[in-house]
Design a protein that fits this description.
two-stranded parallel ribbon, 47% helix, globular, 9 helices, 161 residues
Length: 161
Amino acid sequence: MVELARQLGVTKAILGGHDWGGAIVYRIALWHPEFVTHLFSVCAPYWAAKGDFVSMETLVKSGRLPNLGYQLQFASGTVGTNIVSKDQIRQLLNCMYLGRSPDHARAFDVKDGLHFDLLPHVHQTELVDEATMDYYVSQYARNGIHGTCKNCVLNRTARWD
């Protein structure tokens, strides 16, 4: 981010991040304090940098971060191979935006990931209107969902470095 800003002629910036983006802006502020004038983060805890990289698999399986187990499923590639058609993409998005089955079951769990067998039964979410959902489905259908799910976890080592 600092290099991109430099190429755009920006020497100082106010940084903000949400969720994992919050963790990234914390690191940028630590590594490049001369670049960051102000910082805010929403829904992201601060974790001090440690000397050694710990894999997501180790963090999840050790019980330190079991609520990130879904990321292991995302990194495995099974989401991209199981979610291919526009209907499946719509089911996935409804699931991720808190849609539920008729018996109120969720097709997503933070520890286990997606329950593919429940996805076809998930109702339209109330959080996203039809036009917006159609737009997201069309955009994901262009290149598939595989990259979105895998890249966050697979690039974790690069982000650490």
